[in-house]
Amino acid sequence: MNPRERDALLLYALAELSYEEIATALDVPVGTVATWLHRARETARRELAIEPHTASLIESGADGYG
How many helices and strands in the chain, by DSSP H and E? Predict the structure, then answer.
C-alpha cells in the first residue's frame, strides 16, 4: 500500500478524522483523500483476501466524504 494511502486510512479508521480533517492534516484536496481512501480499501481487501460483502469495517464511509 502506498504510504500516503496508508496514512489517510489510518487517520480515518484509527484517529476517526473526517475527510476534510485528513485533507487539512496532509495538505491535499478532499478529493485526493477520497481517492487515497478508495485505493487503500481496495488494496487492503486484496491483501487480506476479504470479500467485498464482508468488509464492513474498511467500507464505512466509502461512498461519502466522511
Answer: 4, 0
